[in-house]
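TEACHING EXERCISE
Course module: macromolecular assemblies
Task: Read the component lines below, then compare them to the predicted structure of the full complex.
Student: A.B.
Group: 4
Components provided:
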Amino acid sequence: MEKTIRKFRKEDLPQILELIQELAHFEKEPDAVEIDVSILEKEGMGENPLFTCFIAELNNKIEGMALVYFRFSTWKGRTVHLEDLIIRKEMRGTGLGSALYKKVIEYALEQGVKRCEWVVLDWNTPAIDFYERSGATILKDWHLVQMDENAMKKYLNQF
Amino acid sequence: MTDFTIREARKEDMPQVLELIKELAAYENASNEVEIKVEDLEKEGFEEGNFKCFVADVNGKLEGMALVYFRFSTWKGRTVHLEDLIVRESMRGTGLGGALYRRVVQYGHENGVRRVEWVVSEGNKNAIEFYENTGADIKRNWYTVHMDETGIRKNIGE
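Instructor-supplied answer key:
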C-alpha cells in the first residue's frame, strides 16, 4: 500500500468536495454544504488563495484531506487554522489521518507561525485525547458565535 | 452623546491599535502574551492584506477598534471572522461598541459572505446576551484547540 501526502491540485477538487459531503452526511447535516467545485476553485486557486489543502492518497486514490488557511491573532500574529481533516470512513485506522495531521503541523512550522489551531466537538473524547497527547491545549471556556446571512440582513434592516 | 466616526484604519493608526490590544490583554491579566509589534500590524494589515481593521475615531483619538479577516468554511465558503472588538474602558457605554459591531456585520454583508463569526468567553454573559439579541447563534458544544510553538516542534521532532 503506497501512501502519499501531497498538496492539492485543481483536478482534485471534485473529490475534495465529495469528502466534505461525506463528513456532512456523517454529521447528519447533508444539506449544510452550500459550496460547490467552482467555489473551491475560485477561493483555493489563483494568485491570492484563501486556503490550501493537503491530500492523502492510498494506491493513487484520494482517501483523505486536510484544509488549512491563515488567521491573524492580535497577540501572536499569523496563525495556521485547520478547518477540516477528513478521512474516508473505510480508511480509518490506516495512519492516513496522523500523516495529514503531521503534514499540517509541518506546514505551520515552515510558515513560521506561533500557533496552529482548530476546533473539536466536546463529545469527541478520542480526538481530544489525541490532540492533548500531541501537545495541543484544549480551551474549554470559549464559545463559537455565528451570525448567518438571514440574521445579518435582519440585524442590518433595523437601522 | 459622544461624537465619533467609524472608519477604516490607516497604517498610521497602528500604534494606537496596538495600544488598544495591549489594554485588553492587561485587563485579561495577559500582558506578556502580546508578542506582536506595530511593524507586524503594518506589514500584515497594509502590505499583505491579512486583516482589515475598523476604528472608532473620537476627535482624532482612537477609542475603539474591530479587527476582521476572511476565513473559509467547507460548508459555507468565505466567511468574515471578527478577531477583536475593543473599546477603551473609559469609553464603554457611549455607543462605540455597537457602532463597530454594526460596521462588521455590514462588512460581511457587503462582501456577500454567508456567515460572520467570532468567539466569546463563556463567562461573558452580557456579551452573549447581546449577541443573541442581534440574531447570532452561540455554539456551546465546540472546544478551541491551540498548539503553540513548543507543541509544533514536539511533533516535528526538533
